Each structure stands twice: as structure tokens, then as C-alpha cells.
Amino acid sequence: MRNAILIYSVMKRILPLLLGLFLSLSTPPVGVSQTPELMTKFRLGQSYEQSGNFEQAARIYQELFAKDSTNQLFFESFSRMTIQLKRYDAAIALLRQRLAMTPADINVRNTLASVYYKAGKETEAFAEWERVIQTGPTNPNVYRSVVQALMENRLLERAAEIYRRARVACNDPRLFTVELAQLLANTMDYAGSTREFLAWLEQNPTQLSFVQSRMSAFTVKEDARSAARDVVREALSTKEEPRLYELLAWLYMEGKEFTRAFEVEKQLDAATKAQGAVLYALRIGPSRSGPSMWRRRRIAKQSPFL
């Protein structure tokens, strides 16, 4: 009797879960008609696409789209395969047809712009990206979507221009600071990237370690470290901020220039009127361990002055 009650209790809990699992597996993806025939065909198209047979997948998606042109998933699948097969004229026609139905869809318009660019029609591409911006000229997310499309097409300098334009249009000079810093680093504009990181550090003074971690992506290069050091020194010439001294010392340490890093630490000690406390900390180290202080102790060990 006790076992029967236990089994009943367990089944009472498990059955709803099994039912939910069954329903989730039998429910088609969002936007897909629930006709079994269409579902079977769509899954066949997916299997062809996943196996790399794009011709067959495109043929199946085209047939599905012809049967239900309002279905978002059919449209996306068919347009994706058309672009994959580099049938740019057909893709442009398909995307323009979609935009006639949904002119405010910035995702479709960004895709259309990308296809124009891939097809060598740069004038039309940039015109479409401009139309995207005009759908929300003071909306940061609109600019972000354009930048993403530009970056996918390796138009990095143009993407940086859009970030700067967004700052003016949205009346926010701090907008996209970290994003622009990383983008400029990718274009090898290390000075510009460092300026953006310094602007971010000024807004977030406790995040020096974050800035260092992001800059470490390019400080392995001597020319990048040199450009970054010049920017930091320039900033220090106008405002003696302890964080800037710390960042400059770190840049020297990244290049294993420990003596110069120690000289910067001495300048920090003098600027903060620490009366040797900064230099003393280099020698004894903090009570807690951490990457930043480990590096500072490394200066102390290798500097001839301590």
C-alpha cells in the first residue's frame, strides 16, 4: 500500500513534466505554419542547409516561401540561402519586396545594404544604411545596428564614423566609448583607442584594471604601447591624475621597462605627496595579492633604486 502511494505521488509530479516536454517538441518554431507537410519540408530544408547543401536548401525554402510569403521564418531562410549562394540580384529583389511590406524593418534594410555592398553597389549600400539611420536619428540602437552591419562587411573606419555621428545626434559625447575604443584598436589607431579608454576611465575612475585588461589586447605590440604612452603622457601634462600615472607605469611594465616604470611610480609618489608611501608599497607589497600589485612588486625587485 505504501509503495502504491509513493508511485502515485511520483507519477503525479512527473506526468505534467512529460506532457510539457512532449508539447515543446511537437510545437513548430515561431512563425512556421503548423501544417505537417510544411513542417516536414522545412525540417528537410534545415537538414540540407546544415549539411552544406545550400542549393537544395534554397530550393526547398523557395517553395515554402511561395506557399506562405508572410511567414517570417520562410522569408529569412530563403533570403539567407540566396545570399549564401551569391545570387545578389535575386536577394536584392526579395529584400526590396519585403521592405515594401515592412518599410520600418531596419534588420531587412541593413541586410539589403549589405547585399548591395557585396554586389559591388556601394552607392546603393550606403544610401540604404543612411535610410536605416533616418528611421531613428536619435536612437542609439539604430546606430548600433548599422555599425554591426558595417563591421560584418569589414568597413571598420566607416563604423567608427557612425559611432561619432551617433554621439552628436544623441547629444551624448560619452556614447559608445568602450565600443569605439575597441573598434579603433582593430583599425590599428592605437592613439585614438587609448583616448577613448581614458575618457571611459574618467567616467569610471575605479575601473583601471578593466581598462588595462582591454588595452592588453594590443599592448603586446611596441608601436601600440608607444602610441598609448604618448597619449597618457599628453593627458598627464594637462592633469596629474594618479590613475594616469598607474596606467603609464603599467604600459612600461608591459614592455618590461621596469626602470622607467619605477620612475613613473616616483612621479606618482611626488604628485600625490605620499612622502615615499608609494615606493614603500612597491617594496613590501599589499597584504592581499593581485595581478596589479604583483607587477608593482616586480618593479621593486628589478629596479636598482630599491
Keywords:
306 residues, mainly alpha, Serine Threonine Protein Phosphatase 5, Tetratricopeptide repeat, elongated, disordered C terminus
Walk me through the topology:
Layout: H1 2-26, H2 36-50, H3 54-67, H4 72-84, H5 88-101, H6 106-118, H7 122-134, H8 140-152, H9 156-169, H10 177-186, H11 190-203, H12 208-215, H13 222-238, H14 242-254, H15 258-271, H16 277-284, H17 291-302
Helix pairs in contact: 2-3, 3-4, 4-5, 5-6, 6-7, 6-8, 8-9, 9-10, 10-11, 11-13, 13-14, 14-15, 15-17, 16-17
**Helix fraction?**
over 70%
Shape from CA axes?
A: elongated
Mean pLDDT over all positions: 83
Low-pLDDT segments:
1-33, 283-306
Following the backbone from N to C, one meets helices and strands in this order, namely: HHHHHHHHHHHHHHHHH
Q: Specify the number of helices.
A: 17
CA-atom Rg in angstroms:
29 Å
Structural class: mainly alpha
Question: Strand tally, please?
Answer: 0
Distance between the termini: 82 Å
Major sheet description:
none
Q: Hey, roughly how much beta strand do the residues contain?
A: under 5%
Molecular structure report:
The chain has 306 residues and is mainly alpha-helical. Among the domains are: 86-170, Alpha Horseshoe (Serine Threonine Protein Phosphatase 5, Tetratricopeptide repeat); 188-306. The protein is built from 17 helices and no strands. Helix 4 (72-84) packs antiparallel against helix 5 (88-101) and helix 9 packs antiparallel against helix 10 (177-186). The radius of gyration is 29 Å and the shape is elongated.
